């Protein structure tokens, strides 16, 4: 049975973990989903590693980055940690990150988060369930998560 890991944080201002679980459940109803909530983004790599070590086939992390430079540096550290963890385990960690200053309207920020979580949760299922060519039909299509697709340059 396929197993997915969902890592989210208490720092986040939107319950993205619940959204990810709902989407994964809808896309892959028979799979097991394990959730692991940590205080913030810098705690996500170890949570993802533990889930992968426990047999998850892939993980999605739901991070929220504040507006300060310190927040941005924290995300850079997190991103490096998540990439290293993927290489060490040879498994995907789809990193969903919302930057609080991406848009200056909280309703738009919520819509952005929901769109980004939904699309990347589907990406995770496709990669884990259907493999490395599951997304190939979309290669070069300029897909975006959190806002309109940029579209292909023909
Ligand atoms: C500066 C900073 N910024 C963020 C952030 O933007 N988003 C977030 O989720 N967490 C942040 N944190 C907290 C760290 O990620 C971590 O939770 C603590 O350092 C405890 O290990 C810190 C310390």
TrEMBL record:
Organism: Sulfurisphaera tokodaii
Family: Belongs to the DMRL synthase family.
Name of this protein: Riboflavin synthase
Known pathway: Cofactor biosynthesis; riboflavin biosynthesis; riboflavin from 2-hydroxy-3-oxobutyl phosphate and 5-amino-6-(D-ribitylamino)uracil: step 2/2
Alphabetized Pfam families for the sequence: DMRL_synthase
Catalytic reaction annotation: 2 6,7-dimethyl-8-(1-D-ribityl)lumazine + H(+) = 5-amino-6-(D-ribitylamino)uracil + riboflavin
Gene Ontology MF annotations: riboflavin synthase activity
Entry superkingdom: Archaea
Lineage: Archaea, Thermoproteota, Thermoprotei, Sulfolobales, Sulfolobaceae
Keyword field contains Transferase: yes
Keyword Glycosyltransferase recorded: no
CDD domains listed in its UniProt record: Riboflavin_synthase_archaeal
InterPro entries: LS/RS (IPR002180), LS/RS_sf (IPR036467), Ribfl_synth_arc (IPR006399)
């Amino acid at each position: 049975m396929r197993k997915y890991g969902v890592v989210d944080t208490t720092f986040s201002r939107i319950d993205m973990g619940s959204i990810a679980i709902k989407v994964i459940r809808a896309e892959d109803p028979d799979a097991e989903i394990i959730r692991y909530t940590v205080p913030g983004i810098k705690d996500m790599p170890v949570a993802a590693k533990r889930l992968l070590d426990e047999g998850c086939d892939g993980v999605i992390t739901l991070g929220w980055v504040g507006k300060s430079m310190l927040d941005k540096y924290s995300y850079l550290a997190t991103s490096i940690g998540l990439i290293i963890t993927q290489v060490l385990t040879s498994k995907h960690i789809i990193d969903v990150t919302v930057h609080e200053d991406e848009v200056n309207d909280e309703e738009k920020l919520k819509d952005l988060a929901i769109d980004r979580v939904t699309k990347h949760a589907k990406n995770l299922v496709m990669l884990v369930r259907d493999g490395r060519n599951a997304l190939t039909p979309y290669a070069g299509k300029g897909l975006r998560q959190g806002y309109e697709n940029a579209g292909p340059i023909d």
